[in-house]
Amino acid sequence: MPDARILIVEDNLRNRKLICEVLQFQGHTILEAETGEAGVALAREQQPALILMDIRLPGMDGHEALKLLKANASTRHIPIIALTAFAMQGDRERLLGEGFDGYMAKPIDIDEVLEVVERYLGEGANEPS
Ligand code: MN
């Protein structure tokens, strides 16, 4: 798997650090944002190959950030994986219907992170569709 730029939008420091360390170890470059606003701005500037997006964020939440990213031609092609609390697992279909490209439940499972990232980067995620 080639080195890719991956954006993590997550306000929980522990989760962010965990995902960050795992993916950096794989050779990826990680961009971090703590708010939806910062995540959208970083995605526009840096054009990551993949975005991992927490749903519950201070200010603009993951739903709003997704909407903005998918409405903008410069970021529409970037796959966005929702990170949601375990209790929200039943919302999987709703999240996918909303436009998220994938879904991961918390607590963070390192093997799942690696598997999901590999899958989405493997699908030519860098090419706009
Ligand atoms: Mn959160």
Any overview of this molecule?
The chain is α/β, with parallel strands linked by helices and 129 residues long. It contains five helices and five strands. The chain has helices spanning 13-25, 36-46, 62-71, 92-98, 110-122, and strands at residues 5-9, 29-33, 50-54, 80-84, 102-105. Strand 3 (50-54), helix 3 and strand 4 (80-84) form a beta-alpha-beta unit. Helix 2 (36-46) runs parallel beside helix 3 (62-71). The chain is globular, with a radius of gyration of 13 Å. The two termini are 21 Å apart. The model is unreliable at 125-129 (pLDDT under 50). Bound molecules: manganese (II) ion.
Fill in the keyword field for this structure.
binds manganese (II) ion; alpha/beta; five-stranded parallel beta sheet
